[in-house]
Structure formats: C-alpha cells, structure tokens
Amino acid sequence: MSISAPRGLASSGQKPITEILHPLSAAEEPLSPGPDVTVSGGRDKEVGLTNGTPVETPSPASASVLFNRLQLDDDLDSDGRDPYADTETHDLFVTVDDPKKHVSTMETYITYRVSTKTTRIEFDLPDYSVRRRYQDFDWLRTKLEDSQPTHLIPPLPEKFVMKGVVDRFSEEFVETRMKALDKFLKRVADHPVLSFNPHLNAFLSAKDLNKRQGLALLSKVGESVKNVAGGYKLRVRPPEFCAMGEYLDTFNQKLGTIDRIAQRILKEQSEYLTELREYGTVYASWAGSEEELQRPLEGVAGCVTTCCGALEDMSENMGQDFLPVLREYILYIESMKNVLRKRDQSQAEYEGRLEAAVLRKQEDRTPIPAEVEKCQDKMECFNADLKADWERWQSNKRQDFKQLLTGMADKNVTHYEKCQAAWESLITLLQDKQTEDKTRTSVMSLLEGRVFIQIFPGQTSSTPNASLFLSSSRQRGFAREDKI
Amino acid sequence: MADSVSREEVAVISNTDITSTESENNIINTMVERGTALLRKLEINVAEAEKRTGKNTVNMQETYTVYLIEIRPAETEGGTPAAPDTLWRRYSEFELLRTYLLVTYPYIIIPPLPEKRAEFVWHKLSADNLDPDFVERRRVGLENFLLRVASHPVLSNDKIFFLFLTEEKGWRDAVLETGFQDKADSRLKSLSAMFRVKNPDKRFTALKQYSDELNSVISQLLRIRARVADRLYGVYKVHGNYGRVFSEWSAIEKEMGDGLQSAGHHMDTYAASIDDILEEEEHFADQLKEYLFYTDAVRSVCRKHELIQYELEMAAQDLAQKKQQKEELATGTVRIFSLKGMTSKLFGQESPEQKESRLAALEQSIQEGEETVKEKNTECQEFVRAAWDDIEHFKEQRDKDLREALISYAIMQISMCKKVWTFILVCILCMYINS
C-alpha cells in the first residue's frame, strides 16, 4: 500500500501544534465514503481494477508519523515551558541500559548498566560505568528519602511482582522496568538538590556498593528533621499545603478508579478474545465444505485470527506499560503524603515550641531560645523545598501522563491499523477472483457469437471452465483480457 | 454509479471505499442483470412499512405491520419515471405466496423469506416484531425475496406471483382457486415421512449432506457472532467509564484540565459508537440467515426427489411382483409364497375359467403398472433435469452472493477501523493542543 502523508506534514521542520491541526481534515475523509475511482470507457480500467485504495486517504502509517512528530515537539517544548529550566543541572548525565541476567547458586537476578558523564568536581572522574540491580536502586531511594526528607523523591517501578503471574525475566518486563529506572535516575540527577547527594555519588561511582556503610553525611536539615520531636499537633495547615493534600487525595482516588477500569477492560477484552477465536475457527471449518468459497472463507478466518493476535498484543501492552505507571504514581503519592505529614510535624513543633516560649517569656521574661528560631528555619526550609519540588513534580506528572495516555492511544491506533490491513488484503484477494468471474461473464454475454467456447471435459466444478478464443479484432478493449 | 448493468460494475467493486449498502446493491444489480422478462418490464421494491390495527380471525384486535410494494415500469429512454403502482401486503401473505410456490414448483429451490421472529439475538436487540429496526430489516428481506423470485428464470413467469405484485384484493382468492392447498397437505406429509430409497441418486445425497453441513455451520456462526457482539459491546461500554473519571480528574488539574476533559468526552463518544457498529453488523447476519433458510429449501427439493424416486421404486417393485405372479399362474410353479398359491395347493387347483379370468386381470394390472412406471420414470427424470438445472443456478448465485457478503463485511470492518483510529488521533491532538 502506498504511504501518503497527510497534507499538513508535507514540509520539513517543526510545526507549531496549531498548524498540525490540518491533517485532521485529511484524516476525517475516510469517515465518509471515499472518492469513487471513476472509470472512463474501458481504457482506464487498470486503475480501477488494480488499485484497491483511493489515492487521497491518509494511510495508517501516517498516524504514527503524526504521533512521533507531536512527541518531538513536546520534548523540545517542555524545556521552554519548565520554569525550573534554569535550575536544571546540565553537568550530570546518567543512563540506565544494557540489562543482563546473572545466575548464581543462591539466586538469579538482572543487573543494569548505569553510565555517568559529568563535569562536577564532586566526582573524581568524568565518566563512570557500573552495574546495579533493582535492590541497589531501592537502597538509593531509601537513603535519599532519609537524608532529604523535605524533598519529593521520584518513584521507582514496583518492587514486588507476583511470581506466578508475571515473568520477571521476560524481555518486556525487563524493558519496562529498565525504562522506569532510567527515568528515576534522570530525575534525581536533574534535581538541583538531590543530585548533590553523596549517596547518589556513591551509587553512580562506587565499584561495589557497600550498602551497610552508613554514610554519615546527612544534611543538616535531614538530621534535624529526623529528630523531630513527636507529640506536637498541628493546628492549621497553610492553604497552599492544604491544596496539595487535597489534590493528592483526589488524584489518588482517580488513579485508583482508572486502574480498576483498566483491569476491567482487560478482563472484558480477554473474554471477547475467546469468543472471537472460536468465531474464526467456524469460518475455517465452513471453508471445508465449499469449493469456490473455500479460499475467501479461509481468508476471513485468517483475518479474524490476525485481529485476535493484534488484540492480544494490545492487552499485553496495557498490562505492561499502562498499569505499572499508574501504580508507580499511587506509591509516589503515598510517599508524598508522608513528606507533607513530616512538614506538618515540623510546623507543629515550631508552633508548639514558640507558644511555650512566648508563655514563658510572659511569665518570667526568659528570652525566646535559639532552638525556636532553629525550628522556624527548619520549617521555612521545608516549606520552600516542598513548594519547589511540588512544581517540579507537577510538571513531571503532566509529562508522564501525557506520554502515558498518548502512548496507550498510539497502541490502540496500531491495533486498528493491523486489523485494517488484514481486512484490506482480504478484499484484494476476494476482488481479484471476482474480477476474473465478472469479466468472464461480461465478456461472454457481450461477445455473443463471435466466440468459440471450448469446454474442457472432466471438470468437476459446476460451471464449465471456458477458454475464450476471440475471433474478431474489432473487440471493445478490455484491460483484463490476459486474465481470461 | 447507477448504471451498473454494464461492465463498469467491475470498477465499482474494486473501490474499497464503497459502503456495505452499496455492495448490497451490487447483489441486487446482479439479479437485475440476469434479465428475466419480468425484470425487463418492471422495477420492484418494498418501499415502506406501516403499522395497522384490525380484527383478526377470532375477532380480536391485533396490531400488525404491512409493507408497501411498489411496481414501476422499467426505465425507458428519455422519459420521466412513471408514478408507481402500489399495494400493501402483510407478512402472512408473503408466507402464503411462498407456500404456493413451494408446492407448485417442488423441483425449484424457492428463495426464503426473512425470519418470522428475531433469532440469534444478542442481548440488546429487541426480539419484538414491532421493533422499528426489526421491521426495517424485514422490509429489506421481503424486497430481496421478491427480487429473487422476479429474477428466477422459472418462477418469474408464474401468474400468481404476478398477481401478488399487482392485485391487492383479488389475489388471495386466485391463490386458493389454484387448489394448491391439497397438494400442500400431501407435501407436508411427504416431507415428514420416513422411507428408504434403494438406489439413492448420489448427487442428491451429496447435496443433502452439503445442505445439512451448511445449515449447521451457519447456525454455529450466527450463535457465536451473537456472543462476540455481546462481548464487544461490553468492552466499548467499559471504556465509557473512563469518560466520567477523566472528567472528574480534569477538575483538579490546572494545565492538563482541558486536555483531559476532551479525552473524557471522546471516551464517551467511543463507547456510544458501538450501537451503530453492531446495527450494521446485523446486515451481515441477515445475509447469512438468508442462506441458512435456503438450506431448508434445498433439503426440501432433495426430499421431494427422494419421494419421487421412492414412488418409482415402489411402482417398479409392484410391477415386478405382478409379473412374477402372472408367470407363476401361467406355468403353475410357485416360487413366491402367495395365499392363492397355497390354498390351491391345499384345496386343489382352480378351474381353467377361473385361471383365465385371473390371468386377464393380472394382464390388465400389469399394463396399468407399466404405464405407472413409465409415468413415474418420466416424472423422475423431468424432476432431476429441472431440479439440477436450478441447483446449478443456485450454486452460482450462492458463490456470488456469499462472496459479496464477505466483501461487504470486510469493507465494514475496514470502515470501522478507520473511524476508530482517526477518532483516537483526534483525541491525541486534543490532548496536545489543550495541555
């Protein structure tokens, strides 16, 4: 099938999103019956007979082109729109790739290559390449959470997978996990504060990650927050943090609903698939009783089978790409709520201490102790860090979900493309035969008497197999003579 | 592409963007193309359906549907199309016509009527005969029936059929006057009778077997199709749930809000689109059903042949027996046990006069028997010739029709795929534009 790109994408170079709207009008054409392939007399029949598709329709391939275009634009745009672009670090680049299986007597596991390029002085060398396993990433995240409690730490892919249900060593699973780990590490490396964390340094550079080694280089705030005294109750959460909390609650709920719907869809699709498979086999068995119709019926059976395969792929994708990201975010939200709670704690402590100090001052003129000011500092730091991280989180979340939803949509498009292609090739098969028959009968009826029909004996089919010897050269032109 | 009787029709079918309705028209045009005398004169269609109420035979009020048959003289050059002659018929009258044809032309595979009650339904379709969708599909089926009869080389010449199309009031009497009712009863008896043919015609045996297989496989196909439709409906409707949650989610987002809102809206539209998709699929199911019912007609022809064959065999057997009896009587030997033979053995021979009269009676009987056998033989041969002619015609038609139906089905699938992925693209674009 020839690939013709929609008109809007004809020129090279990036187009602003609004101009890319134009392909929509091209894309909408197939919704109404396409332009007839008009045939003038008998001469142009070649066009009508051989070309199965009208010329102007945007073919399925253009859908993916369009999608990739949009992705590219988006990636380039996002830097511009990100208010924290200036604070993004551009001197530390990390990548996670090259998964390898390790088999030992005790266990089997996957390691990934973590490559680093940096100009930072905190690092001894400009390049590093180490191998890490999931456990190591988990260790890093925990350490970051502990040492930077005022910051939002990016999520990791799910730790536990049901051994019976998911194959931990399947290509798809490993691929999905690796992408998530790469995203995690990149986010940490891009963070203006987290990227300077010594645990990250160790993770990226150490030959052997000695996880038991308690690096005592906790940040000051981290240390003090860790030792926040309990027992203080927060009275009023400031409105901006209230909004955060509410948002997280609602968002969590919505994600949960989406997760449930997605699972329900998978179930329904699987039941549909079962029926559809049986449907295909009936066509195949019908083909067995037919002669002329055998190939067309087998063709239909084949089409249905192809559609089943396409649906299976799509369901698999949903399970591997869509659901894990949803669950990642649900876990993420949990950890964010914890951070909010800790922030509340720090505010409560400050307010509690302040109140106590003020009372004492009123009583016996004891000056407000330095601790109270330290608490205030602590709280204000926490608030500032959290606010900054919140904006970053929102931006990342937007990007993640846009990618997720459009990714799912793209998979859907691919699925329908596959199905469409299968049916279109069937039509070609069906029409070729039909063209032969039609031409034969038309010619027979029109040539009236100027024809010798030789019938071959011994044919078992019901219609005589006619070979036409055309006697007259004054025939009206038929482009398909050779097929007869 | 109205002038599809010419070879241009080939190009039309190559265009994959024709809708399935247009493809169905190709089937009808094929029938017209066959050019029976009737169809050269007239254009027939079943234009409308209407509800009526009236008193039935037991004097109770009933609601029924009538269908408008339009007859127009076939297009003449340059003239404006004449106003059609019309009459109204209800389903039971079509049934009467068909029964008449079945009885009068037992060697012809009579085209079937659309189903009396909706079968092989999936959960949403109403099985109610008064449901507008059902009525519409029935209208199409009735039109198909009339066109098939009108394009049949034998049936199209039938007077009663012509009257059915032209005489609203007097038709019923005309049919009954043919006396086909008597034959109808005996036909029904013969169809359900159990008898065994000694030398079955292999071709008819094979045909009956094929028709049984086809019946079974199409039934299976229709059943599963209904289940598939049900499941697909479920999938689409669950997607509709996304609509609401995306809407709710959009309420808490600042920048993604609009994008999510329109995504949700599109989910709703997607979920709603299944109704039209499945309605269109019913059309394919109807085409399959027609051939399912055709198998009954084929079976009926085979049975009729069996009956005639059986009667021939019986007549031949009877004749042979009588000839045997005559021989025995003439030569005095008893080869076959007969009461007369035994009694004469026991109680003595009969008188020569008695013997003479018995011989004469047998002679007479044998002559009559030979006539019968000759008649039956001719009848059988005629039946086989006429039937097999029609069977070839039927097979050709079946191959053509079912191929068209499959093409039409594939076109429908393609159109659905295109709609959906185009639609999803729009969804994606909305998300990008609005976020």
From TrEMBL, chain B:
Residues 45-171 form the PX domain. Keywords: Protein transport, Transport. InterPro entries: AH/BAR_dom_sf, PX_dom, PX_dom_sf, PX_SNX4, SNX4, SNX4_BAR. The keyword Protein transport applies. Pfam families: PX. PROSITE patterns: PX. SMART domains: PX (SM00312). GO terms for molecular function: phosphatidylinositol-3-phosphate binding. GO terms for biological process: positive regulation of autophagosome assembly; protein transport. One of its GO terms (cellular component) is early endosome membrane. SUPFAM superfamilies: PX domain. Belongs to the sorting nexin family. PANTHER family: SORTING NEXIN-4 (PTHR46596). This is Sorting nexin 4. It comes from Maylandia zebra. The lineage of its organism: Eukaryota, Metazoa, Chordata, Craniata, Vertebrata.
